[in-house]
């Protein structure tokens, strides 16, 4: 994912959801599970793309809350409720880590 300050980061995130209306989940979307995964990936890119690396590293909880709200609103017509989103891991490429360490010295 490319951040606002043009840094590439690798992010692992988890989304918990449940089907609250089975008929809507079947009638309103072809594959609610696959669609929810794609929507989560797109939302993650959109949210992180508006933030600097420092913000991403320090504000993981607020990012997760923003994503949860956005995803829940988007999946509501599908009969799917997003219960929780968690940003598990944010990794920076090794070359950038070395450059940052050298600059800190």
Cα(first) to Cα(last) distance is 28 Å
* Average pLDDT level: 93
| CA-based gyration radius | 16 Å
What is the tally of helical segments? 5
- The rough form would be described as elongated
The secondary structure category is alpha+beta
Q: Give the oligomeric state.
A: single chain
- The helix fraction, in percent, is 40-55%
Question: β content, as a range?
Answer: 15-25%
Q: Quick summary of this structure?
A:
This protein is of the alpha+beta class and 105 residues long. The chain is built from five helices and two strands, in the order βααααβα.
Provide the fold topology.
Blueprint: E1 10-19, H1 22-27, H2 32-48, H3 53-58, H4 60-75, E2 80-91, H5 94-104
Antiparallel strand pairs: 1-2
Helix pairs in contact: 2-4
Task: Describe the protein.
Helix content is 53%, strand content 21%. By secondary structure, the protein is α+β, with helices and mostly antiparallel strands. Strands 1-2 form a two-stranded antiparallel sheet. Helix 2 (32-48) packs across helix 4. The longest helix is centred in the middle third of the chain and has 17 residues, at 32-48. The chain is elongated, with a radius of gyration of 16 Å. 19% of the residues are buried.
């Amino acid at each position: 994912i490319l951040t606002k300050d043009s840094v590439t980061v690798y992010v692992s995130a988890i989304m918990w959801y449940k089907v609250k209306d089975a008929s809507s989940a079947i009638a309103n979307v072809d594959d609610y599970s696959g669609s929810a995964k794609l929507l989560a990936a797109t939302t993650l890119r959109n949210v992180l793309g508006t933030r600097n690396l420092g913000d991403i590293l320090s504000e993981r909880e607020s990012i997760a809350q923003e994503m949860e709200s956005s995803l829940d609103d988007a999946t509501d017509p599908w009969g799917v409720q997003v219960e929780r989103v968690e940003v598990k891991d944010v990794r920076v490429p090794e070359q950038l880590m070395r450059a940052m360490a050298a600059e800190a010295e």
